[in-house]
Amino acid sequence: MATGEVFSSLSRFVDMNSNVVDVQWDRRMSPRLLVNPYSEDYEERKTAAHYFLLASSVLEDGVVGFSENARMLLVHLHKIFRNRLFEILKPHIFEEEIKKCGFYSDLGVYKRVIPEVLTHVNRFVRNRAEKNLIKYSQRFSKPVDLAENLAQNIEVTSVSHKDKAWTYMRWMVRPKPDLELFSHFSPENLYVPLTRENASVAASLGLIKSAAPPLWKDKNTAMKARKRITDFAKLLSPKDPAKVDYPFFLLGRWLKQKKLSRNTLKEALEFFDHMHKVTGQPHAYYQKMSRYKSGWEKKTASTLSKMKIPYGYETISFPLPGDTYTPDFILDKSIHGRKIILEPHYEMTRKQANKYSLFKRTYGHEFLLILLLKNDLIPYYHERNFLADDVCDDVWPIEFVDLLAERIRTGTYGQ
What we know:
The protein has 415 residues and is of the alpha/beta class. Helix content is 49%, strand content 9%. It is built from 17 helices and eight strands. Helix 2 (42-57) runs antiparallel to helix 6 and helix 2 (42-57) packs antiparallel against helix 9.
């Protein structure tokens, strides 16, 4: 695929996937928000502007882990404190409640900074914005000026807050499915946030040299990378460069731990195009709101964590012809270029077996599906033809998942 073809394919992909509702306020998802992000009432709009500044300020993998956890956390705190959430200025009050939440262990390694970040936001909104971020935003003529102001006033970690500020500006400035609460700004003047996913796409395109963590250590280097991504995005969408943010997120997740090159990007675009042609749906949906549902799933998660094997749990739903499939565990580990899926089952139905077969026919060149079943039930499923060759790539006794994980970790699986 020539350079022009990559650009054309990328442009089509962006157009097809740009109008997705953000996980932070998607009203179809649980837990439900106590604020209405699209309210026409001015007081509610003021509340929404404050609420989503809190959300964006903790939206960092090292702080909350997955993006879904930022939503879970803010809903949890809002239910406890109600509108007092926006008045708390003492970190220990937040800390006590955050430690009680059932998903505390799922938060990022730097979760201890969350209470301080939230109180910094509240103090900024009270003292600088006079409890009205919409009115405060009108002091600035361009989004860049407000983004700089937010970054300077709310940054409390060693990592630049600027890209979280640009994520917030996208939410506040772009029209639906974003919130357009700061309507005096033009989307044309937004920068594309320098997230890890966006940086991976930029590195694949050759816009920046690397998407490795040192990119964010120097503010000038990060600023130049952010500008290069935005300048490229303007070639795709001159009046709305931040339109690329979610499509690039999809691509960046797909490129994770792969060699970043134009050829890898080409293969990713071809895969998503194939998915669209086969299923009639444009993309897989990331960031499912899920928690472990069974003891087998908890056992698998515990084993993978103990072995230090990175994984995502129900993080993506794949469209299938007439159906969808959400794998339990997708590992970052690959075998011959195929990412590993682990699917633990206490019991399995023929309907589930048919769905796995359909998934394998549609996505089998990209994923290796391993079913984890009770050892004494495996012969039963074989006898009833639940485990035909087209259903999965391998079957493993759930009782020995630690042995499987060890072989995956050491690279000896399949040898």
